[in-house]
Amino acid sequence: MNLLKSRHLFCCRHSYSYLGSSGQIFYSTNNTPKAQITLQESTKSNYYSRKPIQNTQNSVESQGRHRRTREPAQNIKMPIPGLHLLEDSHAPQAPQQGSGASNETKSKEPKPQKSKANKDLKPWQVRAQAKTQRKAVLPPDEKIYPSASSGGIPEPSVAYLQQSLCAPTRLPAPRRILVVMDLNGTLLHRPQKTRPSHFVARPHAANFLKYCLSTFHVAIWSSARPENVGKMVAKLLTPDQVKQCLVIWARDRFGLSKEDYNSKVQVYKRLDTVWQDERVAIAHPAAANGGKWDQSNTVLVDDSLEKGRSEPFNILALPEFSGLANEKAEVLPQVHDYLNELSWQADISSYMRATRFALDAKYKLPSQR
């Protein structure tokens, strides 16, 4: 009975989307249906299952963010590949009375000891000490999500999902699309984070960037700090190539609070932030006639699928590049081919929903065929 009550409360209090047994997407807020979209039978197998994870109330609440541990669900299907159904990340829940799980979780979070030495510390020093102690006991796979002041965890809009469900259509000729490119983990690997100018470039990175800059509109957006992004770009691109980029953005363009900016929080690359930038907007080939960048003509290239959560069918997720020894396939040449195909599509989001990027381990360069 308690399980039924708690499940009813969860459905009433939180916004969520799920895939019904009849192959339909239901996207609702506060138990009020917003849209109902019929899926094609051929795409049902592309969806993953995720289970909503309840957050625990602990001393992290004072910092405005909450830690969650992901685990697969059994009976809940998500309509978006690679995304996870999460509860409201902005409103911490009070622990239930007599709940053993809450008490156990609280006991794992060490609190700063009220010793004589702590009495001489300033409040910010006590908080920093507590943060260090929490990191020591957290599992390595546990992430810190952004606070409400940083925008929280985004979700795709109903309008976005509806448009992505349109049938893919091929254009009679290719066009110049907008490519939002990541740096670390996508084009290069930094063995030491403290030495941003010392990195290993992914195989074919130089030729790949040269091709993209001459064929598409390119914007660079990295979650690294501005000073580190400047050093990476200066070594990866020539001065003329830097001028060809529409924008080169760093961590300061995520809208993070000061505390989240200085912490290793999960960041999200909301593409509407790029589309609304004046320098990017005027680069649209039909800007003079009202043409705009949107989900139909933009692709995000990144090694983290979660960063594209707000536009899940516009992210081309690569395996993270962690050094030459771990590179098992010709990655960037295959990305090159996929981007070329996207330039022929009338709507990139609908094509990527139906045909996700996948590496071919047996892929060979044209010169090796």
Brief write-up:
The protein is an alpha/beta fold. Helix content is 29%, strand content 12%.
Structural description of this entry:
With 369 residues, the protein is of the alpha/beta class. The chain has a domain at 167-368: Rossmann fold, CATH 3.40.50.1000. The chain starts with a helix and ends in a 15-residue tail after the last helix. The chain contains 13 helices and twelve strands. Mean pLDDT is 76; it is low at 1-109. Strand 1 and strand 2 (24-29) form a beta hairpin. The strands form four sheets. Strands 10-9-6-11-12 form a five-stranded parallel sheet. A three-stranded antiparallel sheet has the order 1-2-3, with helices on one face. Helices cover 29% and strands 12% of the residues. Essential component of the TIM23 complex, a complex that mediates the translocation of transit peptide-containing proteins across the mitochondrial inner membrane. Residues 43-76, 90-152 are annotated as: Disordered.
Question: How is the topology of this model organized?
Answer:
Blueprint: H1 2-13, E1 16-19, E2 24-29, E3 32-38, E4 67-68, H2 100-108, H3 116-119, H4 123-137, E5 143-144, H5 158-164, E6 178-181, E7 188-189, E8 200-201, H6 205-215, E9 217-221, H7 226-236, H8 239-244, E10 248-249, H9 258-261, H10 271-275, H11 278-281, E11 298-302, E12 315-317, H12 331-342, H13 348-354
Parallel strand pairs: 6-9, 6-11, 9-10, 11-12
Antiparallel strand pairs: 1-2, 2-3, 4-5, 7-8
Region (Disordered): 43-76, 90-152
Organism: Emericellopsis atlantica
Subcellular location: Mitochondrion inner membrane
